[in-house]
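Q: How would the structure tokens look for this protein?
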Amino acid sequence: MFRHFATLLRPLVQLTATILVLTIALAHPASAASRIKDIVDVEGIRDNLLVGYGLVVGLNGTGDTLRNAPFTQQSLTAMLERLGVNTRGSQIKTANVAAVMVTASLPPFSSQGTRIDINVSALGDATNLQGGVLLVTPLMGADGQVYAVAQGSVATGGFSAKGEGASVVRGVPTNGRIANGAIVEREIDFKLADLATLRLSLRNPDLTTAVRVADAVNTFLGTSAAIADNPTTVQLDVPIRYHGNVVKLLTDIEQLRVEPDLPARVVIDESSGIIVMGEDVRVSKVAIAQGNLTISVTETPQVSQPNPFATNGQTVVVPRTAVNVDEEKGRRLALVDGSISLKELVDGLNALGVNPRDMISILQAIKAAGALQAEIEVM
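A: Here is the predicted structure in token form.
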């Protein structure tokens, strides 16, 4: 009897387990929910751009022409004077030196002594920086203060080679990089732990997403500490239990998941024919027809020669031109129903047999007709 009761109970247990799984799935939908740390930036925690001017030496005859780049000669003369070598009034002839601009990005909270990567770009008419060495170059911020000092061997991603009658260039040999090529000398004073208010900046501004971020933070904290000021910014007042420990607060809330909401948008790259459409793109009821017209012109000139032993005869070229017009047949109007989904829109356009470039024109025409409920952005 107990075995028979267990047999009857097994389907009920399986049904209960199925309902439980569905309930969990509904409570935590497998949607495109993202962590807060992936969609917002904390105001004050950001990189700072650095720039400097320096010299690259040791080039194999591929440096600046001093006659065409006077700033290189002036910099070289000034550098030699600082090292105790006087070259004022003398004519320097060298092709192994290049003036360069050095750029870098100083990460937030970088301490003195840490190393950062730098980029080196030729400023004059140097043709190749391969094998060169960057001399000591101060890197300054927007305030004119020196925050790092750069030096090291330049590594280029391109190359160039030439002979008497031909040359080849791959990549950009006048642009290079030095890994860990700069040492941080000055720290940026920013006390994160002492802040009483945080400002979270959305990377993709949107009103709905800002409100969802504020709601998620308030639900986690159990207070109304966060409020969406505008589509870009969420202001968060640091709760009392996190005073002096803002890092712990950011660590806790950046793992919260929020489903971002974006406006309907169609992004078009006309140069490569790439089309990207958002999920919420909708099209009103519209009829579409597409056809191709090809006109080909072929020139086949012929030579006309005089008869043998003809007096006053001349050889002339007689033009022969063939013009062919090919208009694709069988194209008819296609009806696209209103309020269709993105998948249905793609299927409908594919059914027309159009290529991506024709599809760009069709989407722009639909937008011009007022039937495309989305923003078109051309890159």
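Helices lie at 2-27, 36-39, 70-82, 207-221, 246-253, 342-351, 356-368.

The longest strand covers residues 48-57.

Upvote if useful.
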